[in-house]
Amino acid sequence: MIICYHKSMIRMNHLYKTYLKTWPALKNVNLEIDRGEFVFLTGPSGAGKTTFLEVIYLEELPTRGELYLFGEKISKYTHKKRALIRQKMGVVFQNFKLLFYKTAYENLELAANVVGFSPQKAHKRILEVLNQMKLSHKINTPIYQLSGGEQQRVAIARALVTSPDLILADEPTGNLDPAISKSIIKVLEQINARGTTVIMATHDYDLVNEYSYRKLHVSKGKIYE
Amino acid sequence: MNKVFYLIKSAFSNMYHHRKVAFSLVLSLIILISANLFLLMMHNNLQNVLEVFNKNLRIELILKKDINNEDIKKNINNIKNNNLISVEEIVVNDAAENLKNFVNSSEIIEKIYPLLDKNPLPATIAIKINFNKISIENIDRFIDKIDNNTISTIIYPKEWFNKSLKIAKWSEYIAYGLIGLFFVLTYILWIHIFKVSLFSVKKEIEIMEIVGGTKTYIKTPFVIETFIYAVISFLISLGIMKYIYVGADKLFNKILFLTGEQILYAFVLTVLITLLGTEKAIGKFFKK
Ligand SMILES: Nc1ncnc2c1ncn2[C@@H]1O[C@H](COP(=O)(O)OP(=O)(O)OP(=O)(O)O)[C@@H](O)[C@H]1O
Ligand SMILES: [Mg+2]
C-alpha cells in the first residue's frame, strides 16, 4: 500500500460555478487550503459561500476550472468515488438536513454506520460528541422536539461523529446565542488542534474578528484573502 | 459483519415505517403471482381436458382378406415396437369374430347370413393411443410406418386429431403469452408501488448519500426488503394454489399440480423481477 500525504487539502485553479442562466455564483477562484488549517468564510447573503462548500463536497460540479481534493484532481467521478470522498468529510448544513422523526442518537448513528463504525464504536463516539455539544440530556429526543439551536448542535455533532479529515460548516452558529457560538468554535478549535481541517462559513463578522485564523471573504462570487 | 447486521436491521425498520404501503406491495404481488401460478396449473391440466374429449378416438386397421395369424402378430409387434406414439391398448378382432359381431348386430342379417358360403369380412386391429401432444404430432409418421401390404385400409379421424393439436398448441401459446404478460405487469407494477414506498424514506436516502453512503450500501436494505416481500408473497400464492388444487381435485379427478421445476422457475423469476423493479425504482432517487 502506498500512503500518500498531501499537504494540500483543497486547491482550486480558475474555478467557476455558474447556475443555469444566472450570474456566476463563483468566479475565477484560485486558492489553496492546507491540511490542519482553520478557515473562516465570510460574506453577505447570496455571495456564494454555500456554493463554495457545495463544490468541495461534490454536490455541485464546477462549470470550469480545476479542483483538487486531498491532493487528487477531481474531474469526472462515479457515485462510489464521490461517496468515498464524502466519507472523509463532515458537513454541517445551513438547513441542517436532519431526519425530523428520528432521535438525535439515530441521526448520528446513520452517519456512523455509513462509514462502517462497529456498533460499540459508534455508540461510544455518538455519546462523546453529543456530550461535547452539550446535548447529553436530549439523546433520545426526536429532532422535531428540539429547539432551533439544539437542532443546529445535532447537525454539528453529526458532522463530527465520523472523525473526518475535513469539516465544512455552513453557518453553524446561525441560530445560537453568542455564548454558545463561542463554545461551538471552541469545539471546532479542539478538533482542529488534532489535525482536522475546518472551513466555517458565517456572516457574523463580529464573531470572526475575535479570532486570528485565516479569513476568506466572498463577495459576488469572488474570493478575497 | 456489523454492516450486514445494520443493513438487515434497517431493512426491517424500513418495512415497519411504511407498513401500510408494504401491505399493498405484498397484496398486489400475491395477486399477480397467484394469477401466474394459476395459469401455469391450468396449462398443466389442458392435457387432461383434451384427453377427456379424445377418449374414444382410435385408429382402425382393416387387414386384407386371407392373411394368417403370423401376419396379424407381425402387425401387432410392429405397432407395439414403434417409438413414435404411445399405445394404450390394442384390440384384435379376427375375421370370424368380426363376422360374429356383424351378425349379432341385426336380426335380418342373422337370418340371411347362412346364405354366405364364405366370410366376407377381414380381420381388424383397433389401436387406442395415449392422447398427448407428441403422439398426435407423430400420428402421420406412425401410420406410414405401420402401413404394409397386409393392411388394406387405415381409418382414423385425421381432422379431429389435427384440430386437437391446433387447440393444444394455441392454448400453450396463449398460456405462455399470458404468463409472460403477467410477469411484465408484475415488473411495471412493482416499480411503481415500490417507488411510492420509497417516498417515505426519500429524505433518508438523500442524507445517506450526503454523509457518504455508496449506492450498494443505500440499496441493500431495500433489496433485502424486496426479497422478503417476494418470498412471503410467493409462499402465500403457492398456498392459495394448493388450496385451489385440493378443491378442484375433489370435483374432477386426476388434476395436476405444479411441478417442482415450475415452482422453482416461477420463484426465481418472481425474485428476479421484483429485485430488478426495486433497483429501477431506487435509481430514480439518486442524484445523477
Ligand atoms: N441551485 C441553484 N440554482 C440556481 N442558483 C443558485 C442555486 N444555489 C444558489 N444559487 C445562487 O447562487 C448565488 C450564491 O448562493 P449561495 O447559496 O452560495 O449564497 P450564500 O453565500 O450561501 O448565501 P447565504 O448567506 O444567504 O446562505 C445566489 O445568487 C443564489 O441565488
Ligand atoms: Mg448559504
TrEMBL record, chain B:
Any GO BP: cell division
Record's signal peptide: none
InterPro entries attached to this UniProt entry: FtsX
Domain of life according to the entry: Bacteria
Keywords: Membrane, Transmembrane, Transmembrane helix
Annotated transmembrane regions: 21-42, 173-201, 222-243, 263-282
One annotated Gene Ontology cellular component of this protein: membrane
PANTHER family: CELL DIVISION PROTEIN FTSX
Protein name as it appears in the record: FtsX-like permease family protein
